[in-house]
């Protein structure tokens, strides 16, 4: 598509598809007989969640949470606001937070603290990507698709100035 030549492919569509299928099967095994609610963090996780949930062969519930960080867009302040809350109760239910990428861990730390007071039965985290080199807050990640280097990535839900979330692969910005 137009403008796509600025990106270098990091993870191909086929690699992502294979890994997402594996993760779905793992989640299916782990949550058999439980009351699973998959919670996607908007907007980045929407593509991953929609593929992942179709490989989870259980009667799951799906919900979304909107978050926005204060401060400028290049640095995460860790001060996060809920812009769209869950539409269902998670009391006594098994929650799986689905994230696109964990970078500093600040967003997820906030989210896990917020969920804890809502008394779910359990909370686990599933992220497509993890950039461990930027960790500020160590948060337990239960399912990780790919561990990547410290690069700004785009596609498969992740944006480049609010665009290109619809790329079917994950790429990074090519250096001229
Ligand atoms: P954290 O709080 O872990 O630093 O940030 C998590 C959020 O920052 C992600 O949900 C995502 O919205 C954004 N983010 C972090 N790294 C990247 C990246 O490489 N590309 C894009 N598009 N967003 C990122």
Question: What would you say about this model in short?
Answer:
This protein has one domain: Rossmann fold. It has 176 residues and is α/β, with parallel strands linked by helices. 20% of the residues lie in helices and 31% in strands.
Explain what this protein looks like in three dimensions.
This protein is of the alpha/beta class. It has a single domain, classed as Rossmann fold. It contains three helices and nine strands; from the N terminus they run E-H-E-H-E-E-E-H-E-E-E-E. The protein has helices at residues 13-30, 46-52, 106-116, and strands at 7-11, 36-42, 61-69, 80-84, 94-102, 122-130, 143-147, 153-154, 170-173. The strands form two sheets. The protein has a six-stranded mixed β-sheet, with helices on both faces. A three-stranded antiparallel β-sheet has the order 1-9-8. Helix 2 links the parallel strand 2 (36-42) and strand 3. The model has no long low-confidence stretch (mean pLDDT 94). The chain binds guanosine-5'-monophosphate (5GP). Guanosine-5'-monophosphate binds at residues 44, 76, 99-108, 152-154, 158-159. Guanosine-5'-monophosphate binds next to strand 5, helix 3 and strand 8.
């Amino acid at each position: 598509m137009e403008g796509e030549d600025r990106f270098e492919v990091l993870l191909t569509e086929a690699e992502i598809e294979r890994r997402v299928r594996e993760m779905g099967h793992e989640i299916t095994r782990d949550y058999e007989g439980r009351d699973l609610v998959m919670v996607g963090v908007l907007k980045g996780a929407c593509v991953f969640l929609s593929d992942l949930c179709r490989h989870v062969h259980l009667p799951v519930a799906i919900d979304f949470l909107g978050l926005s960080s204060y401060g400028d867009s290049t640095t995460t302040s860790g001060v996060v606001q809920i812009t769209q809350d869950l539409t269902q109760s998670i009391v006594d239910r098994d929650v799986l937070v689905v994230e696109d990428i964990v970078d500093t861990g600040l967003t997820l730390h906030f989210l896990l603290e917020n969920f804890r007071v809502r008394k779910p039965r359990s909370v686990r985290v599933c992220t497509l990507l993890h950039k461990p080199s930027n960790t500020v807050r160590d948060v337990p990640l239960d399912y990780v698709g790919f561990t990547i280097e410290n690069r700004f990535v785009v596609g498969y839900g992740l944006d480049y100035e609010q665009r290109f979330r619809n790329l079917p692969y994950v790429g990074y910005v090519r250096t001229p």
